[in-house]
Amino acid sequence: MPHSVKDRKSNRGSRRTPSKGSTSINARYTVALAPNVARQVERYAKASDSSMSKAIAALVRIGLEGQEHRKREFFKKLKANLADADPNREDELVDEFRSLILGR
To answer: Do 41 and 56 meet the contact criterion of CB atoms below 8 Å apart?
Structure first.
């Protein structure tokens, strides 16, 4: 039975829903990279024997994990340095620094 044009829906621009048992959503994005960054990603893709898309995904994941690590380290060092300060103000100072640096 032939399908009419109305019956077919385009998946373009839609997000995929995760399959049962999966907790992640795979989404496709188009990004523009500066030429020097594109060359670095190409080298990384070749070195890791992966596609450009997988290389970009890996590098983004690594960058986000690194950012979280740096943030934790910053607050750990801040708390250690504040240990010499008035203990009653320690949490207050940490919150002030958090809002100043992270905007939260």
So the answer is: yes
Minimum mean pLDDT among 1-10, 33-42, 59-68, 94-103: which range? 1-10
Q: What is the dihedral of CA 3, 19, 17, 11, to 10 degrees?
A: -30
- Predicted TM-score of the model (pTM): 0.53
Q: What is the DSSP string of 42-88?
A: HHHHHHTT--HHHHHHHHHHHHHHHHHHHHHHHHHHHHHHHTTS-GG
Section 13-37 average pLDDT:
72
What b/e readout covers 37-47, taking b as 16+ CB neighbours within 10 angstroms? eeeebeebbee
In whole angstroms, what is the distance from residue 52 CA to residue 26 CA?
16
* Placement of tokens 């640096």 in the chain: 101
Q: Do the beta carbons of residue 59 and residue 44 sit within 8 Å?
A: yes
Q: What distance in Å separates the CA atoms of residue 55 and residue 1, rounded to the nearest whole number? A: 42
Measured distance CA(93)–CA(70) in Å, rounded: 19
Residues in the chain: 104
